[in-house]
Design a protein that fits this description.
The chain has a single domain, classed as Rossmann fold (3-Layer(aba) Sandwich), CATH 3.40.50.2020. It contains 6 helices and 6 strands, in the order αααβαβββαββα.
Length: 168
């Protein structure tokens, strides 16, 4: 089994499969990786992702609303020795559970970036607080978002062009 096949097997234990991605009409319908279904797999995936982003030297992990992403964000932050905060939509305004101080080096984290608007909202919030986004980290990369953001991205698996075409 290749390393990428191993990562897909771990993702499947948490409910995120290529088949599920293909079945969704668009990114908003993608299945969410739920590390609570497979804690050992979540630990392995997040630890590997932490190793890949360590060179960015983040001081804060930031994630969006889904409770399933909290475990991923927690493990990443723990492995990097930094804090994590969770952003959410508060009646149309972006809010944050946790402090984002000036000068933070923020790593934006998700199992997969499904929504460009929530990603942009987090980037804007970081800038408003006088901090900077140093990168994005995700378990699954959707190539259709590539090129739209200037921040470096690290991922464990990348959907192939064929997979992306099947999901359109």
């Amino acid at each position: 089994m290749s390393q990428e096949e191993h990562w897909w097997a771990c993702l499947a234990q948490g409910g995120l499969t290529v088949e599920g991605l293909r079945a969704a009409a668009d990114r908003s319908g993608w299945p969410i990786y739920d590390g609570l279904r497979d804690p050992a797999g979540a630990e392995e995936l997040a630890t590997e992702l932490a190793e890949r982003v360590a060179d960015l030297q983040p001081t804060l992990v930031m994630l969006w609303e889904p409770p399933e992403d909290v475990l991923l964000g927690h493990i990443l932050a723990r492995e990097l020795g930094i804090r994590a905060v969770r952003c959410f939509d508060a009646d149309g305004l972006v809010s944050c559970a946790g402090d984002v101080g000036a000068g933070e080096r923020v790593l934006v984290v998700a199992d997969a970036f499904r929504d460009e608007h929530s990603l942009q909202a987090m980037v804007s919030l970081v800038a408003q607080r006088g901090s900077s986004v140093v990168g994005r980290a995700c378990l699954v990369d959707d190539a259709r978002l590539d090129g739209e953001w200037s921040h470096p991205q690290h991922e464990l698996v990348v959907l192939t062009d064929a997979d992306a075409e099947l999901m359109r």
